[in-house]
Predict the 3D structure of the following.
Amino acid sequence: LATALLLPLLPTAARGEVLALMENSGLQPAVTPGVSLDASGERQPRIVYSNGCSRVTIGGTSAQLASPSAPELVPHITFVEIPSQLRTLESMLRDFTLGEHLLLLGNQGTGKNKLADKLLMTLRREREYVQLHRDTTVTQLTLSPSLEGGRVVWVDSPLVRALLHGRVLVVDEADKAPPEVVCVLKGLLEDGELLLGDGRRFVTARSPLWHGADTPDATAEGVRRVHTDFRVIALANRPGYPFLGADVYAELGDAFATHVCSNPDATSERALLRAYAPRVEE
């Protein structure tokens, strides 16, 4: 319920009223296998590998690990497993295994990039990365011309490579995207179609062209099926002051499973400091 309402992003007064209603209704955090509770009653999931490290479980959610064909594209980062981010990872994994695209909303410095990379590292999924800004064009998002051997050739962007090979596209600073770029992403994720400048048309199962995309006529017309493992993880700042970006949730929220990344609680902050300075007394 708190996730559906984007509770951390609500104004203080509205958030207090929702919390009071939840408390009066007796809504309490559920305890699931692989999850413990700290002294304050907060859930603390754990990351557990099983079946010969071919399956991973975060809290009460499990997923099969991938076998990447390009392991150099799998992120490898340093990540401190603090309770607040593990709870977010568990909910991200749950939606990811259901085939959803993910949208991470939060202020700067709350670990959106770290969470996205940790999820992909845990699942051994290949990542393609693109960072948007106010001057990003549709051509830059899809294809870019390059001069090779005296000829102009079209080079696939990270988005197109992710579509072809079933990788996960991480879209950073999604709130900075111009309206025309947002329209391209919205058409791909909601309508299931993307038309490139070189004539190729990528379609997902949402498109009426999906079932006939493997016929010779469709292939000749440039219709290509999007790989079924293709996913998008979009990262965006909260709308309004001080970031003054677009309201990504209002424009693209229907196409994503949205997760709010907040500042860590006191327990998580102590765990983070303890990991970086284990010899310092509390």
Observations:
- Residues 30-37 have pLDDT under 50 and may be disordered.
- The first strand starts at residue 35 and ends at 37.
